[in-house]
Amino acid sequence: DTAVSQTPKYLVTQMGNDKSIKCEQNLGHDTMYWYKQDSKKFLKIMFSYNNKELIINETVPNRFSPKSPDKAHLNLHINSLELGDSAVYFCASSQGGTSGRRYNEQFFGPGTRLTVL
Amino acid sequence: KQEVTQIPAALSVPEGENLVLNCSFTDSAIYNLQWFRQDPGKGLTSLLLIQSSQREQTSGRLNASLDKSSGRSTLYIAASQPGDSATYLCAVSRGGGNKLTFGTGTQLKVEL
With contact defined as beta carbons under 8 Å apart, do A31 and B98 qualify? Predict the structure, then answer.
């Protein structure tokens, strides 16, 4: 009964490669996010999609391209990986709209630890 | 630009003690505030969410309060247990995409 899942959990790759991280949620939410947690454990938003439409894009290099094939999936593709891209990437989702007491509560996946060598 | 600060950065307490974690934010025009815990090498677990119109939320031994006008929230943990050891993060949301701005975290250790 996994709520937000990410694959892979670990990703080790060489500088210059292209890689993708996949995210899926089975909560029926219509908003999904990507966050980056750096080596100092600081979390920062990267992207947000609502019903497959991009609504937040936070000064992220255009080597990072999110793709939302449907509202249950938000994948992150990274081109020409650099050393500084090494981090833990978290996917999250929330229910948009005004229903429910826990409006807009965000639920996070387990994270993908990306190491660029 | 919203900035979120958490004090203390680290805290060690004996089991059974009641404790308070603090979170402050610079822009009071928030939509909601969410408290999370993060265990080493794991994802974030949502603990409590407080809407901007609310003053507090409770879940079990946890109680979170919100004073939006002064830009502060506290997370109260009653009768702490070793299993409460984790990093606690607060995050505030503004409308228009529900972007969460995270605090720096408080690393809590509850000792036997």
Answer: yes
Burial of A73 (0-12, 13-18, 19+ CB in 10 A): middle
Please count the helices (runs of H) and the strands (runs of E) in chain A: 0, 11
* Displacement of CA A79 from its chain's centroid (Å): 15
Chain segment A86-103, per-residue pLDDT in tens: 999 999 999 864 344 345
- Say whether A41 and B105 touch across the interface (CB within 8 A): yes
Neighbours of B68 (CB within 10 A): 18
SS3 A83: helix
| pLDDT tens column, B51-69 | 888 999 999 999 999 999 9
Task: Tell me the chain A residues in contact with residue B32 when contact means C-beta distances shorter than 8 Å.
Answer: 103-104
Count chain A–chain B contacts defined by CB atoms under 8 A.
59
Residues of B in contact with A106 (CB under 8 A): 34, 46, 91, 98, 100
- To probe the interface with A, which of B38, B100, B101 has the most A CB atoms within 10 Å? B100
Residues of chain A with pLDDT under 50: 97-102
